Protein: Glycerophosphoryl diester phosphodiesterase
Amino acid sequence: MTQIFGHRGASGYYPENTLISFEKALEMGVDGLELDVHFTQDGELVVFHDFELHRLTGEKGFIFQKTLAEIKTLKVHAKNRTASIPTLQEVLSLIQVFEKASGKKIMLNVEFKAGSVHYPGIEEKTYALCLTYLPNQQLIFSSFDHYALKTLKSAHPEAQIGVLSTAALIDPWKYVNTLHGDFYHPHFMTLNEKELSKLKAHDTKINTYTVNSTDTAKKLILAGVDGIITDYPDKLIALKSKL
Ligand code: G3P
Ligand code: MG
Structure:
């Protein structure tokens, strides 16, 4: 059955990548959460999407130019709310508390925001921290920076990686295999019926993003994708229960 991942939490309703967004997504009944990680100037892992602070906080500059203490003075303004930028540890702790209270197991897709800014060592530090809260089989590490995935997989072959892509790839199953990838994480617009059946024929596991239309989600669920990453997890969970 297709797993539903809350994209940056329940970011269609709450400020993306904040504790309230993750908490609400968990309460909606997600199978998993997706989030983005960066290093602060002092090497702490924080959960935020953009490299630059401005869109969400109004502050100038980049995440990597601020210490964690400075980041903690900022507020995310979105969806008519204000919230703090969480550390990765705070989100992991929230998941752990939820798992204990609910008896559910939650998948976590951690996306390394490596690429235009480089964060040497982010893969190792993130993986080590995640493993102190969740077992390996509940963790998927993804990135558009495939060097980051290669770095993690080379050091830890048991770590599950998801190969993110915005554009359609030629024979993606071959490329994913080259990276020893566990999942292909394509933008949903790159998936048509033909492509999906080829991916299925090659046993490529697919978690696709960011699907907010229930019509599109229905087609993808019926086609047997492994996971869907959405800003509106409640809508897709309701849809899934009717199929
Ligand atoms: O991991 C899926 C999706 O989050 C990738 O794109 O830009 O929303 O992080 P983005
Ligand atoms: Mg992301």
In short: The pocket of SN-glycerol-3-phosphate (ligand 1) is lined by residues 7, 34, 36, 49, 111, 142, 164, 185, 209-210, 229 (CB under 6 Å). The longest helix spans residues 88-102. The longest strand covers residues 32-39.
